[in-house]
Amino acid sequence: MTEGFFKVQDLLENYKTAVYEKDVEKFLSMYAPEMHIYDCWGNWESKGISWEESVVEWFNGLSEDGILLKVVFNDLVVEENSYLAFVHCAVRFAAHQEESGEKLRQMTNRFTYCLKKVNESWVIAHEHSSLPINMETGKGIFNLK
Prior knowledge:
The protein is α+β, with helices and mostly antiparallel strands.
């Protein structure tokens, strides 16, 4: 782990910064090696650090398209004790053109995180992202918020 996340908010700020900077190492530093992810993109489920390939692909795609991705956590709820934290929120991802700063698009996902404390630092042990589904079309609804 490259840095300590002594408060849950430290980890969330790192998430936003790592995505904006497209920094794979910084992004992965938030996850426990044995983490378990249910994702609404690409892989249905990922276990362990094998998820790195997906993160590299995501960040490379953003770089190739000249996009900076700004992350905002909305409706954030954090429940924690000494060793475990439960977080749920709506996460808005807004794509901006790197050169002009023009906002191109945005979407909002629902996220739930289970964090655990390892060596006094919070890490993500489980992550679940989802979108509500339009029952008539079967397609995800990306911007309810």
